[in-house]
Amino acid sequence: MNQPIRPKATEFKGQKLPYPASQEDMVPAPQSDFASYSAAGKLDGKIALVTGGDSGIGRAVAIAFALEGADVAIFYNQNDADAAVTRQVVESKGRRCLVIKGDVRDSDQCREAVARTITEYGALNVLVNNAAYQCAQKKFEDISEEQWRRTFETNIFGYFFMAQAALPHLHEGDSIINTGSIVGLTGLEILIDYTATKGAIHAFTKSLALYLGERGIRVNCVVPGPVWTPNIPGTMPIEEVENFGHEVALKRPGQPEELAPAYVLLASQDGSFMTGSLVEVTGGRLSAA
Q1: In angstroms, rounded to a whole number, what is the distance separating the alpha carbons of residues 253 and 243?
Q2: Which residue among 159, 196, 234, 247 sits deepest, i.e. has the most Cβ atoms within 10 Å of its Cβ?
């Protein structure tokens, strides 16, 4: 099978989209068609709930899980059109897709999202905490208290609320997968609040893994490098979008479908001895550039 052609950093031009950006408006379009993906039934009969599942990494994870045999629920905040596309693609793979609109910052809505998933499917096996908010600021002094709270409440409070809501329904062999970031390990001067939340997610992953180890519930974290998702043109300065991904060894950003196999590994029995892990998928982003 031919390998897909991945655009190099030099092919990414300065682009700014209104937040929340739609994946359908991005140029070039993020790659999540999985044309070269070989499914093996790794998640047959599983039920997964993916936050931020309308676009970007979340959409790719939902599609990959469907290809591997799972029924999926996606929990998203604003972009109805993107969520509809995710549902259409998942259903085209022969699996069910429950679409839930809400806000992970609200603990009641997190519990409701889990309850609706259980009502629809009768079980929950995999929680993917992926919803995220970021807003670049060139000056630290310009980060408002409102932005600081929104970033933390989305990126770490939401993970906490979703894990608490899901836990009563998870059993031995089930898993929680968090989305961290390489900048949570290296830092990034224009995303100070965001990087702080990603560092918190990494520590949350390891501590929760220790707590749930005796119950056989695994908790891991995928740590992406630069990935071409709607958050990039929607929240980053134009000059950061230009040549996006140039700093990594592969000289290009990752595509959403390149991240998804790591989530499949961590959700499946192939990852049965992995817990508390930070799995870096960065294209060779080894240090701050």
Answers
A1: 9
A2: 159
With beta carbons less than 8 A apart as the criterion, state whether 83 and 99 touch.
yes
Statement: residue 285 has pLDDT above 90: no
Checking if the pLDDT of 287 tops 80, the result is no
> Can you give the pLDDT at residue 2?
74
pLDDT for 63-97, tens place per residue? 999 999 999 999 999 999 999 999 999 999 999 99
CA 10 – CA 7 distance, rounded (Å): 8
Cβ atoms of residues 56 and 227 within 8 Å: yes
Number of domains in the chain: 1
Alpha carbon distance 233, 249 (integer Å) = 22
Q: How far apart are CA 139 and CA 256, in angstroms?
A: 30
Structure tokens at 245: 């991904």
Number of alpha carbons in the 13 Å side-chain half-sphere of residue 280: 13
Q: Rounded to whole angstroms, how far apart are CA atoms 69 and 46? A: 7
Beta-ladder partners of 72: 48, 97
133 belongs to the catalytic site: no
DSSP string, 32-95: ---TT-----TTTT-EEEEETTTSHHHHHHHHHHHHTT-EEEEEESS-HHHHHHHHHHHHHTT-
CATH of the domain at 62: 3.40.50.720
Assess if residue 25 is contained within a domain. Answer: no
Average pLDDT of span 166-194: 98
Answer yes or no: is 34 within a domain.
Answer: no
Domain span at residue 197 reads 40-226+254-281
Which of 76, 121, 159, 194 is an active site residue?
194
Residue 275: inside a domain, yes or no? yes
H-run or E-run covering 98: strand 97-101
